[in-house]
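dumping this here so i dont lose it again. seq + smiles for NAP
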Amino acid sequence: MQHPLLVIGHRHGIGRAITERLLTLGHSVIGISREAVDYSHPNLESRVHAAADLNSEHLPEFLSGLVFAPGSINLKPFRGLKMVDFQADFQQNALDAVHVLQVAEKALKAGQASVVLFSTVAVSQGMPFHASVAMAKGAVEGLTRSLAAEWAPNVRVNAIAPSLTDTPLASKLLGNEARSHAAAERHPLKKVGRAEDVAEVAILLLSSSWISGEVFGVNGGLGRLRTS
Ligand SMILES: NC(=O)c1ccc[n+]([C@@H]2O[C@H](COP(=O)([O-])OP(=O)(O)OC[C@H]3O[C@@H](n4cnc5c(N)ncnc54)[C@H](OP(=O)(O)O)[C@@H]3O)[C@@H](O)[C@H]2O)c1
């Protein structure tokens, strides 16, 4: 990966773990988050703005990769979900990613880049209270496969579908010992994910030259296994 990589959402959570790993590997990263980050590195250029405000002037001529990490976990019974909930989740998870990809298209193609988007385990496995986020992330999976076909062979496009991962986004669901324990027990591998567990798969996808159009489950076995 000879050119910079663009990481949207590098301040905390999975986007930060990916950024730190890329920097450790010697890559250059342009990071974008809505608030300033509390770390620095000679190869990191941090920008403070929302994904929706990205424009092509923010980008170099060539990009080797793009990670779009913003997302939501808006869990409510279906009757409690208002149209504005569905619209907000769709905007943040799907349409903001579309905007960033459209702005970056030229640089991604010029750099023969790899793109990593984020879905959720709740798309392939029905889970109560996930209607809004599962709909929005289902759109991300469709976008992943469509763009992977349209941009081949120049640009690879893949998605990662994590299960519950210990980041600020999941803090309410892992808010105390009892909740964390119950969440771990739901997974065949008896633990929730760490941001680093997801980042290592993202690094693989960013650096691979022969994977495109795939959605990778990183989910402690929850995606495919029954252990009882
Ligand atoms: N954690 C989980 O359990 C889990 C499970 C399934 C799927 N996922 C998916 O995995 C991805 C990463 O999740 P995460 O847990 O790492 O999320 P997170 O902890 O909320 O981190 C999101 C990052 O994106 C930035 N961000 C949020 N909205 C933004 C915007 N509009 N423009 C620019 N930056 C923005 C945040 O920084 P600022 O606040 O400074 O902007 C932060 O750096 C998401 O797509 C999520 O839906 C996560």
